[in-house]
Amino acid sequence: MPYDFALFRKCCADTPDKVFVDRDALRDASDIFSLRTKAALLDFIGNDGLEDLKYEATALWKNNPTSLPLMTDSYEFKSMFMLGYIAIIYSHKTGNWIIKSFHLSRNRSQAMVLALKKAGLITKGDKL
Questions:
Q1: 3-state SS, residue 55
Q2: Residues contacting residue 1 through CB under 8 Å, at least 6 positions apart
Q3: How far apart, in whole angstroms, are the C-alpha atoms of residue 47 and residue 88?
Q4: Contact between 27 and 107 (Cβ < 8 Å)
Q5: What is the pLDDT along the chain (128 residues), one digit of tens a residue?
Q6: What's the CA gap between 25 and 32, in Å, rounded?
């Protein structure tokens, strides 16, 4: 059963200190979506910036640093002309959320990738 995304979105808007962002997720949010800071990313999520949100899957977090199993929910979303991917984790023990991933979806078309590169929105160094 996936997490309640509405609760996650509300937490991003109302209690951002309870949301942690993985370093790679923040780098990708900055490089790909021009969301340069944690505050900008959480504001974007908290204000319904993730359009056409679609639940993908729930899986056990492979890199879980604790002995308590944590699950990761993944979603696809649209933002303007880009198809994105977000993965989130919730710790029932701490009441904190983690944004594990925030990048372009791997399900996007190659035509879109080429258009983004041509527009200068993606560079060779960007992870796709």
A1: strand
A2: 58
A3: 17
A4: no
A5: 789 999 999 999 999 999 999 999 999 999 999 999 999 999 999 999 999 999 999 999 888 777 778 999 999 999 877 889 999 999 988 999 999 999 998 875 555 666 666 777 766 555 55
A6: 10
Q: Tell me if 123 is assigned to some domain.
A: no
Distances (CA, A) of 126 to 29, 42, 77: 11, 22, 19
| Domain annotation covers residue 125 | no
Cα-Cα end-to-end distance for the chain: 28
Tokens of 92: 């029932």
> In this structure, what CATH number is given to the domain that contains residue 38?
3.30.2310
